[in-house]
């Protein structure tokens, strides 16, 4: 891992009505890091992740977000060049965002749309490179046997692995995963986290993942960033996040993220 930041957030704020979802949040993400974003419900985790990808505009003001050294957004406006950054950022959502009527293969092949002729993708005339990349990605995440199956007939864990495979076909260098295991059973959740960890360690992909389950954050991520009421209240090694700090971060929600063997 190098120290060169691939993501930089400076003084980012976001207001919804009278609620401050983000309050002057600053964060640097180095190439090859795997970072967990944690915090109670409404703390701003998803808002921050969506802002990094330009899916959510931040407030006007001094806030600036850059990726790969290029602008994503600043002063409440998404950059005209955001596509240059976004094409290298894979976004994994809690609800998979697959097209249910299409096969898993077609969903994964959609990751190549930024690099192939529009009509080829529209009519499913995938170039050989895309076909080979899609099958390799499906094999990498362990669901190649389901390539021809409609996405809406697959389990949640299989669909989420398909979403990760799509990001691989996209040739993403950064994966932003927003609660990717929240709707999965424990076995599927662990498998998805293991895949993300392997892509980080083996392929050097930068991963930023929001998690409700603190044990997953501590088990799979080296660095943890915690938000509370839109503010960054912890940024450091997972090993340094102790029980008293978790109680301070989560308050009444602590019981929801508590597990046997939690840090003392």
How would you describe this structure to a colleague?
This protein has 264 residues and is of the alpha/beta class. The protein folds into two domains: 5-88 and 173-257, Rossmann fold (3-Layer(aba) Sandwich), CATH 3.40.50.300; 101-171, no CATH class. Helix content is 33%, strand content 25%. The chain contains ten helices and eleven strands. It has helices at residues 45-52, 82-86, 104-109, 118-122, 128-140, 156-169, 186-203, 214-220, 243-250, 254-257; strands at residues 5-16, 19-30, 34-38, 64-67, 70-74, 77-78, 89-92, 174-178, 206-210, 223-228, 231-237. Strands 7-8-9-3-10-11 form a six-stranded mixed sheet, with helices on both faces. A five-stranded antiparallel sheet has the order 2-1-4-5-6. A hairpin with a 2-residue loop joins strand 10 and strand 11 (231-237). Helix 5 (128-140) crosses helix 6 and helix 6 (156-169) runs parallel beside helix 7. It starts with a strand and ends in a 7-residue tail after the last helix. The mean pLDDT is 91.
Task: Set out the fold topology.
Blueprint lengths: L4 E12 L2 E12 L3 E5 L6 H8 L11 E4 L2 E5 L2 E2 L3 H5 L2 E4 L11 H6 L8 H5 L5 H13 L15 H14 L4 E5 L7 H18 L2 E5 L3 H7 L2 E6 L2 E7 L5 H8 L3 H4 L7
Parallel strand pairs: 3-9, 3-10, 7-8, 8-9
Antiparallel strand pairs: 1-2, 1-4, 4-5, 5-6, 10-11
Helix pairs in contact: 5-6, 6-7
Oligomerization state: single chain
**What is the β-strand count?**
11
Q: What name is given to the CATH topology of the largest domain?
A: Rossmann fold
Structural domain count: 2
Compute the separation of the termini in Å.
30 Å
Helix content: 25-40%
Shape: globular
What is the name of the CATH class of the largest domain? Alpha Beta
Give the overall average pLDDT.
91
Strand order of the largest sheet: 7-8-9-3-10-11
